[in-house]
C-alpha cells in the first residue's frame, strides 16, 4: 500500500511526536520544541508554540483535559503545559536530567522515563519527584502500563518493572544481541516490545511474564514506535515502512518511501477522521504528515438522551429537558 501525503513538508529538522487533542492533531518537533496544529481541514500545519533553541519534544500527552510535553535539551528536562498560546513550565529539571523520553499517565499522575534511567513523577503542581534509582547509565526508552504496573523498555534490550515506590526491578535480560528496546505496549493481554540497533534487523518481541523476552516476528528494519488501532498493533521504524501485527501474522501496511525514511511517531486522529498518521524525517526536513492507509473504526454518533434513570439523594438537583 502506498503512502498518502496529507500535509506538505515543514522546514523543521524532525517530527518527533504526535497526539490527538480536542479534535485536532498536534506535532512536536526537534531542536526548537515547536508545536504544530492541524484541524483536519487546513492544507498545512499551523505553528502554535515554540520552545528554547536546541530543545526538542520527544513526547506529548493529554492529561486532565490539557496538553503536556516533555521538553529536553539545552540543559533542561522539563514538563510544559500548553496554555493555548505558549508553553508554560510546570516542572523544572531534576537531577540534571536533560533528556526525557516518554510520558505516561498512570494512576491519574504523569510519569516520564529518562535517558539516565530514572522514572520521574509529576507532583501535579510545580516539580518532578524522583521515584527510582538510575539504571547504571542504562536509558529507559519507553514506558507503559501492564497488569496495573509500569514497565520500561531499556538500553541493553532489557525490561524493567517499577516496584511502585522507589526502584526499577529487572524482569527480562538482554534480548538476543540487540541493543535497545525502544518502545513497549500492552496488546491482547500481553506485553510487547520493539528493538532498534544499527546494523541489525528489528524484532517484535514479547515478555513471557516471568523473566525473558520471546521472539515474535522479524520486522526487517529497526523499530521506533508501537501504536494500536482497533484490534491491531502497528510498528514503525526506519526505511519508511509501517507493519501490522494482528496477533498471528506481521504484514506490511506501507511500502518503502524515500521521503519518509525514519518514522518517529504514529497516532490515530481521535476526534478527527480516525486514520493512522505518521511523521518522521528525511534529510533535514520533517516529512509533512502522511496517512498510512489505515482507517480506524469511527464511533457511531450518540443518540440524544432525554431521560436517565438515577437514584437521587438529598442535595441532588434534577434537571429535565
Structure in words:
This protein has 321 residues and is mostly beta strands. It has a single domain, classed as YVTN repeat-like/Quinoprotein amine dehydrogenase (Methylamine Dehydrogenase, Chain H). The strands form 7 sheets. Strands 1, 26, 27, 28 and 29 form a 5-stranded antiparallel beta sheet that branches. A 4-stranded antiparallel beta sheet has the order 2-3-4-5, with no helix packed on it. It is globular. The C terminus is likely disordered.
What's the main sheet like? 5 strands, antiparallel
CATH uppermost class: Mainly Beta
Annotated CATH topology: Methylamine Dehydrogenase, Chain H
> Cα distance, first to last residue?
50 Å
Outline of the structure:
The chain is mainly beta and 321 residues long.
Give the key terms.
single chain, 321 residues, mainly beta, Methylamine Dehydrogenase, Chain H, five-stranded antiparallel β-sheet, 0% helix, globular, disordered C terminus
Note the topology.
Elements: E1 4-7, E2 15-21, E3 24-29, E4 35-38, E5 46-49, E6 56-63, E7 66-73, E8 76-82, E9 87-91, E10 100-106, E11 109-114, E12 119-122, E13 128-130, E14 140-146, E15 149-154, E16 158-162, E17 168-172, E18 181-187, E19 190-195, E20 203-207, E21 213-218, E22 223-229, E23 232-237, E24 242-245, E25 250-252, E26 262-268, E27 275-282, E28 285-286, E29 289-295
Antiparallel strand pairs: 1-29, 2-3, 3-4, 4-5, 6-7, 7-8, 8-9, 10-11, 11-12, 12-13, 14-15, 15-16, 16-17, 18-19, 19-20, 20-21, 22-23, 23-24, 24-25, 26-27, 27-28, 27-29
